Sequence to fold (346 residues):
Amino acid sequence: MADKKRPAKKKAGKKTPVKKKPIPKKAAAPKAAAAPAPGKKLTIQDLAQIRDKTRALLTIREGQGRAKVTVHMGTCGIAAGAREVMDALLDEMQKRKIKDVVVTTSGCVGLCSREPMATVEIAGEPPVKYVDMDAQKIRKVLVDHVLKGHLVKEYALAVGNEMLF
Amino acid sequence: MMEDLSLHVLDIAENSIAAGATLIIVTINESRKRNLLTLRVADNGRGMSRAELRRARDPFFTTKEKRTGLGLPLLAQTAEQCGGGLTITTRPGKGTRVEARFFYRHIDRPPLTNMRGTMMALVFGHPEIDFRYRHRRDGRIFAFASRRFIPARLAAGGLAPETIGRVRRHLGAGLRRIGTT
Fold:
């Protein structure tokens, strides 16, 4: 756990404005925070901000980002074009500088005729399965569903979990 | 059907991922002089038992709860049609190595096409896995290691989006340098 916390602190340090740089160090050692740096007092709001940032980073690191997109890459999916779907997804993630979405691949889910497929899981919501994906459709799913929270009905197959084949 | 051999590489490497590998080594060797193309995917996953290995080329055998397992049989078929073949070496608990060989200039040999796309899908689909990729083409070599771009401590998430572009450019430039994509 201590090992995991260390990089998070560094990141939080990087993201806070320059004048707040010493804050994360203190957040790690609450006793030290009681004695503020000269000329700068640590407010409750500052602490809350640090806590939120660190927590966000930690959840992503533990593989529980705000959302997870799974591109199904069984032999069927690959033959149907899952690699192009993955490529478009990565491209869009990079362009929009998305940090809190986890992308992964998995196997065939037994619906080979509707490949390429992708599953979108948003924290606290049931997973949604999208079928007959292509580069353009996955971009739309990422923007509309993952970023804006509107399920893309016309591409969705069903809502719920599947058995992995 | 798989249109190109880089899709087969992706498919076989996905098997390695399913086998719980933490290290996957992709090796491609193109030798026009020897008229030979070999693809190899080696992993440290759970490996196959003797019974599983015996049936690995059977399209109606799979370790999963479905009726077909087409990945390896399709690659074996393609390789054999091109005057080559497929070799699977495996040890339970140690890992598996799949090697496919083709006559480079065989009329039926599919093109390799898009190794960059294949490696991108693997590396960013599973940043927790240590991917090594070595591509030799007529004496020119391109070598890639995912850990150079994605340190293990960041692999479970928290990747900077810029990393995607960096890896894509690195793969593109390296493969262009040895005369492929």
